[in-house]
Amino acid sequence: xxxxxxxxxxxxxxxxxxxxxxxxxxxxxxxxxxxxxxxxxxxxxxxxxxxxxxxxxxxxxxxxxxxxxxxxxxxxxxxxxxxxxxxxxxxxxxxxxxxxxxxxxxxxxxxxxxxxxxxxxxxxxxxxxxxxxxxxxxxxxxxxxxxxxxxxxxxxxxxxxxxxxxxxxxxxxxxxxxxxxxxxxxxxxxxxxxxxxxxxxxxxxxxxxxxxxxxxxxxxxxxxxxxxxxxxxxxxxxxxxxxxxxxxxxxxxxxxxxxxxxxxxxxxxxxxxxxxxxxxxxxxxxxxxxxxxxxxxxxxxxxxxxxxxxxxxxxxxxxxxxxxxxxxxxxxxxxxxxxxxxxx
Length: 344
Prior knowledge:
- This protein is an alpha/beta fold.
- It has helices at 40-46, 145-157, 172-183, 196-204, 218-226, 241-247, 273-277, 292-306, 310-313, 323-331; strands spanning 3-6, 14-16, 28-37, 58-59, 63-71, 83-87, 99-103, 106-110, 119-123, 127-129, 164-168, 187-193, 209-212, 231-236, 251-259, 281-284, 317-318, 339-341.
- Helix 7 links the parallel strand 15 and strand 16.
- Helix 2 packs across helix 3, helix 2 (145-157) packs across helix 8 (292-306) and helix 3 (172-183) crosses helix 8.
- The chain is globular and about 65 Å long.
């Protein structure tokens, strides 16, 4: 199989044409990747911002659409020829921690799910059958951005009538948090980012207010929006330490902050204890508290009702050979989210 492999952090991925597929372990499936996309978490891993990487060299990628080509012993969830979503979030099924491939008699490591390759061996509990009305290209987002973003609102906030919300960061997770917030009819939906293009995009998606994080009058503008009451909820998806810290200043004393972002390894959050004494709460999120087997159809329905323009979001397709260009374009803000078409 062909794969993009990370041999060294802070360097380009290397395209390998002849990785050898091992025999399937119990609980594993062999899939043919159709589309995969890139998220910020994977970029941070490539750039060495997630800490020391003890698994080098290894395969990458954790969101894709694929076709089941072969199933190992014990697999009951899917069968050959099923189309599936691949996700890093654990689902029903057997959990197989890792696998490895061979290249020139050297071991190439892989986790329970990897997707930057033409084929992949994946744990049963990282696959979900593709809903019939979900496009295979757009399905890649249901492996990460959609369950995390929609899940933050649907599963963790569990909407109560007449509540206000502010969302910090308009990456993939932020976008789908915004879509879910609109679906559940939150009031005073406000978005913060440092990129005015993303703020304009958020406005087009239905944000009532947009603010630039660099604005020196940010707090006073928030007070004007909320009539000095601040927000009931804040969601941070920015990965910015200062943004996570500041988010506590955006909420009411009984308000809640939830963050699902990935700051660099060893970055620490400083919190004024008085903010917590006043009754404010802050929680981290792992995948939006989502259960993909249950939630993919629910979130697909939410997004379909929003009339979200997937074509605009995936403005450019890349081949696997162009994955380093895709990473570069993503980092430069040329595309909202790169998608790799394995048929190119």
